[in-house]
Amino acid sequence: MQKQNVKKSIYILPNLFTSMNLFCGYYSITAAIQSRFVDAAIAILIGGVFDLLDGKIARATNTTSKFGIEYDSLADLITFGLAPALLMFLWVLESTGRPGWSATFLFVICGALRLARFNTSSSSGSDFEGLPIPAAAAMNVSVVLFFSRLQISPEPFKLVLLVLMFGLSFCMVSSFRYKSLKKVSFFKSMKFNKLVGLVLILVAIATEPSILLFVVFSIYVMSGPVLTLVYQKYSKRDKAAQADKGF
């Protein structure tokens, strides 16, 4: 019989950030129930910051564990799946009846499937397959903040927002390719021009966060289908060129 030594470690620091991510999701749910929709949206965004940091810290400090990965996925499902779905339902989609709750429930289901596929995938490239669930949640959140900032009532646009929920659900389980931030590290040196560009982006977002976040996440969501079409076009061109050479 072969003895296998399985390391079952629970590290405090990265899992503490994951717990804060989960707390943000819980707070967002309670705020949405109390009709504090802007607070609920901001809580999800803060949860996204904690979700980004827990993985970065775990890799930087070499404290990655299977427990942390599973715990992070469960926290993500609450913060980026259930919380934004409930937020959108109580904010505008409740009045649509059955289509509203079916769209928000589909969002949760597709988010869970997206997380499961990511955890079981062996791909280590620079692209994601399907829209990441934090980005889908951020798109919903940015819509709420955008409407609130411009003081626009969401009721006249409820059908558009209903289609948005179905579209985001489809993008999460699709094969669209989205750029990943996994290779971006906060603990490594960067060129001066990149640092200046990052600072300018942060300053621009800080100037009008509600509007610019909506623009940024809209571009990212639409980038998946566009990149997929571009990759397919170049792939067909390469295959045709190889066929011509072989012929």
Provide a brief overview of the structure.
This protein is mostly helical and 247 residues long. It has helices at residues 12-33, 37-60, 66-91, 98-120, 133-149, 158-173, 192-207, 209-246; strands spanning 127-129, 177-179.
Shape: globular
Helix content: over 70%
Distance between the termini: 56 Å
Computed structural class: mainly alpha
Query: What is the arithmetic mean of pLDDT?
Result: 86
Count of strand segments: 2
Structural notes for this entry:
- With 247 residues, the protein is an all-alpha fold.
- It starts with 11 loop residues before the first helix and ends with a helix.
- It has 8 helices and 2 strands, in the order ααααβααβαα.
- α2 runs antiparallel to α3 (66-91), α2 (37-60) runs antiparallel to α5 and α4 (98-120) packs parallel to α6 (158-173).
- The protein has helices at 12-33, 37-60, 66-91, 98-120, 133-149, 158-173, 192-207, 209-246; strands spanning 127-129, 177-179.
- Residues 1-7 have low confidence and may be disordered.
Please write out the topology:
Layout: H1 12-33, H2 37-60, H3 66-91, H4 98-120, E1 127-129, H5 133-149, H6 158-173, E2 177-179, H7 192-207, H8 209-246
Helix pairs in contact: 1-2, 1-3, 2-3, 2-5, 3-4, 3-5, 4-6, 5-8, 7-8
